[in-house]
Amino acid sequence: MGTPLDSREEQAAEVVDRLHEEYPDSTISLTYGDRLELLVAVVLSAQCTDERVNEVTADLFETYQSAADYAAASEEQLAEDIYGITFHNNKGGYLKGIGEILVEEHDGEVPDTMSELTDLPGVGRKTANVVLQHGHDIVEGIVVDTHVQRLSRRLGLTEEERPEAIEDDLLDVVPEDEWQQFTHLLIDHGRAICGARSADCGACVLADICPSEQGDGAVDLASGEAW
Q: Active site residue: 50, 145, 168, 220, which one?
């Protein structure tokens, strides 16, 4: 197994530095042209791949170009238009509800506060953080998706299990000017090397400082189980 650095702060800084070198162009992988498209894409991406979302939104964004367009559509039509997205029926309802609230309460614009965003259907703190960061250039937290949840535990940066608790923990150890990029770096590394079902530790630039690095009797700290 690898040997983590003496403090979580040192560990986090080293992880960020190494991953910046490994993934110099790391950024959000959803395709969007404005704040509304970003919001819709992130809502659709819950439990669905960004690649699939981008395929579906290529046509969706041609049809729905304003909050009023979503508000005017039926849930059934929206669900049909996003067919292929995980939980498309539920998300069709979310999109209509989002459109209605944006029209009624925000003049059709995407709000720029955590509280207003999380009042929208289908929008939790993770989604709101993405919209704030990439739509409004407001960084007040760390987006904790499944990759960040898994890798931050494997790397010994947190022992928390719930995304909200993990975020609170990471805010204390990840440099503030890296909060936004931290997510993208861990997502890229999770996709390329450190998957949920398998980890290619032999090709990992973090193996020597990772307490979950595979070996005899080594434990995957993400699950608490032996490899």
A: 145
- 152 within a domain of the structure (yes/no): yes
16 closest CA partner among 157, 130, 123: 157
Task: Give Cα separations from 16 to 27, 131, 176, 189, 199 (angstroms).
Answer: 14, 22, 12, 11, 19
**Residue of 81, 91, 96, 126 with catalytic role:** 126
Q: Is 194 annotated as contributing to ligand binding?
A: yes
Residue 96 catalytic? no
Determine the distance from the C-alpha atom of residue 75 to the mean position of all C-alpha atoms in its chain, rounded to a whole number: 25
The reply, when asked if residue 48 is annotated as ligand binding, is no
Range(s) of the domain holding residue 48: 35-135
Concerning whether 91 is annotated as a catalytic residue, the answer is no
110 occurs within a structural domain: yes
Q: What DSSP line would sit under 72-124, residue for residue?
A: HS-HHHHHHHTBTBTTHHHHHHHHHHHHHHHHHHHTTPPP-SHHHHHTSTT--
Q: Quick one: 45 and 131 in the same domain? A: yes
Q: What is the pTM of this model?
A: 0.90
> What are 47-101's pLDDT values in tens digits?
999 999 999 999 999 999 999 999 999 999 999 999 999 999 999 999 999 999 9
Helix (H) or strand (E) holding 219: strand 219-220
Residue at which a domain ends, from 84, 105, 135: 135
